[in-house]
Amino acid sequence: MRDLSHLDEFRTPYMGWMGDKKAGAFLLNLEGSNLKFTVLATYEGDWDHVSVSTTERCPRWNEMQQIKTLFFNPQETVIQIHPPESEYVNNHPYCLHLWRPQKDKDKIPLPPSYMVGIKSIGELPLKSN
Asked: Which of 40, 43, 59, 109 sits between 20 and 30 A of 101, alpha carbons compared?
Protein backbone atom coordinates (compact mmCIF):
# COMPACT_ATOMS: atom_id res chain seq x y z
CA MET A 1 0.00 0.00 0.00
CA ARG A 2 1.15 3.53 -0.67
CA ASP A 3 2.15 6.07 1.94
CA LEU A 4 -1.23 7.75 2.49
CA SER A 5 0.13 11.12 3.63
CA HIS A 6 -1.06 12.63 0.33
CA LEU A 7 -4.62 12.04 1.60
CA ASP A 8 -4.20 13.68 5.02
CA GLU A 9 -6.63 16.52 4.20
CA PHE A 10 -9.38 13.90 3.71
CA ARG A 11 -8.74 11.98 6.95
CA THR A 12 -11.58 11.68 9.39
CA PRO A 13 -11.63 10.14 12.87
CA TYR A 14 -12.81 6.55 13.00
CA MET A 15 -13.80 5.42 16.50
CA GLY A 16 -11.34 7.98 17.89
CA TRP A 17 -8.49 6.76 15.65
CA MET A 18 -6.80 8.94 13.01
CA GLY A 19 -4.61 6.24 11.50
CA ASP A 20 -1.02 6.52 10.32
CA LYS A 21 0.84 6.80 7.03
CA LYS A 22 -0.52 3.42 5.82
CA ALA A 23 -3.97 3.36 7.42
CA GLY A 24 -6.94 5.48 8.36
CA ALA A 25 -10.43 6.61 7.50
CA PHE A 26 -11.04 9.04 4.65
CA LEU A 27 -14.02 10.91 3.17
CA LEU A 28 -13.42 11.35 -0.55
CA ASN A 29 -15.08 12.90 -3.57
CA LEU A 30 -14.16 11.05 -6.76
CA GLU A 31 -14.02 12.33 -10.31
CA GLY A 32 -17.27 11.74 -12.19
CA SER A 33 -19.38 11.18 -9.07
CA ASN A 34 -21.41 13.46 -6.82
CA LEU A 35 -21.28 10.92 -3.95
CA LYS A 36 -19.09 11.03 -0.86
CA PHE A 37 -17.03 7.84 -0.42
CA THR A 38 -16.04 6.52 2.97
CA VAL A 39 -12.76 4.64 2.71
CA LEU A 40 -11.13 2.65 5.50
CA ALA A 41 -7.55 1.52 4.91
CA THR A 42 -5.88 -1.04 7.18
CA TYR A 43 -2.91 -3.38 7.14
CA GLU A 44 -3.04 -6.33 9.49
CA GLY A 45 -3.28 -10.09 9.41
CA ASP A 46 -0.83 -10.14 6.46
CA TRP A 47 -3.21 -8.14 4.27
CA ASP A 48 -3.47 -4.57 3.02
CA HIS A 49 -7.19 -3.82 2.93
CA VAL A 50 -9.30 -0.94 1.66
CA SER A 51 -13.04 -0.79 2.30
CA VAL A 52 -15.06 1.57 0.06
CA SER A 53 -18.68 2.54 0.68
CA THR A 54 -21.33 5.16 -0.01
CA THR A 55 -24.79 5.69 1.45
CA GLU A 56 -26.53 5.48 -1.95
CA ARG A 57 -25.17 2.48 -3.92
CA CYS A 58 -22.21 0.17 -4.38
CA PRO A 59 -19.12 1.80 -5.87
CA ARG A 60 -18.74 1.38 -9.63
CA TRP A 61 -15.71 -0.08 -11.39
CA ASN A 62 -14.25 3.32 -12.36
CA GLU A 63 -14.65 4.53 -8.77
CA MET A 64 -12.89 1.45 -7.41
CA GLN A 65 -10.13 2.05 -9.97
CA GLN A 66 -9.70 5.62 -8.67
CA ILE A 67 -9.49 4.28 -5.11
CA LYS A 68 -6.92 1.68 -6.22
CA THR A 69 -4.83 4.50 -7.72
CA LEU A 70 -5.04 6.59 -4.53
CA PHE A 71 -4.23 3.79 -2.08
CA PHE A 72 -1.92 1.41 -3.96
CA ASN A 73 1.17 1.79 -6.13
CA PRO A 74 0.58 1.56 -9.91
CA GLN A 75 2.33 -1.81 -10.33
CA GLU A 76 0.67 -3.50 -7.34
CA THR A 77 -1.90 -6.17 -8.08
CA VAL A 78 -5.01 -5.63 -5.97
CA ILE A 79 -7.93 -8.05 -5.83
CA GLN A 80 -11.61 -8.19 -4.99
CA ILE A 81 -12.55 -11.55 -3.51
CA HIS A 82 -15.76 -13.51 -3.90
CA PRO A 83 -15.49 -16.09 -1.11
CA PRO A 84 -17.66 -19.18 -0.65
CA GLU A 85 -21.17 -18.21 0.45
CA SER A 86 -20.54 -19.83 3.82
CA GLU A 87 -17.87 -17.15 4.42
CA TYR A 88 -19.97 -14.12 3.41
CA VAL A 89 -19.97 -11.12 5.74
CA ASN A 90 -22.12 -8.13 4.82
CA ASN A 91 -22.25 -5.35 7.39
CA HIS A 92 -23.03 -2.62 4.86
CA PRO A 93 -25.23 -2.93 1.76
CA TYR A 94 -23.05 -0.62 -0.39
CA CYS A 95 -19.50 -1.61 0.50
CA LEU A 96 -16.76 -3.20 -1.63
CA HIS A 97 -13.24 -4.20 -0.64
CA LEU A 98 -9.78 -4.20 -2.20
CA TRP A 99 -7.15 -6.63 -0.91
CA ARG A 100 -3.43 -7.21 -1.36
CA PRO A 101 -1.49 -9.90 0.47
CA GLN A 102 1.63 -8.59 2.19
CA LYS A 103 3.44 -11.92 1.83
CA ASP A 104 4.06 -13.32 -1.65
CA LYS A 105 2.48 -10.18 -3.09
CA ASP A 106 4.34 -10.71 -6.36
CA LYS A 107 2.91 -14.23 -6.71
CA ILE A 108 -0.76 -13.38 -7.17
CA PRO A 109 -1.66 -15.35 -10.30
CA LEU A 110 -3.20 -13.37 -13.12
CA PRO A 111 -4.90 -14.73 -16.22
CA PRO A 112 -3.52 -13.70 -19.59
CA SER A 113 -4.79 -10.24 -20.52
CA TYR A 114 -6.20 -11.52 -23.84
CA MET A 115 -8.84 -13.40 -21.83
CA VAL A 116 -10.16 -9.99 -20.74
CA GLY A 117 -9.76 -8.15 -24.01
CA ILE A 118 -7.31 -7.32 -26.76
CA LYS A 119 -4.59 -4.78 -25.95
CA SER A 120 -2.94 -5.13 -29.35
CA ILE A 121 -3.59 -7.19 -32.48
CA GLY A 122 -0.44 -9.28 -31.90
CA GLU A 123 -1.56 -10.33 -28.44
CA LEU A 124 -4.34 -12.76 -29.35
CA PRO A 125 -3.12 -16.33 -29.77
CA LEU A 126 -4.47 -17.66 -33.05
CA LYS A 127 -5.38 -21.31 -33.52
CA SER A 128 -4.38 -22.94 -36.78
CA ASN A 129 -6.42 -25.68 -38.40
From this structure: 59
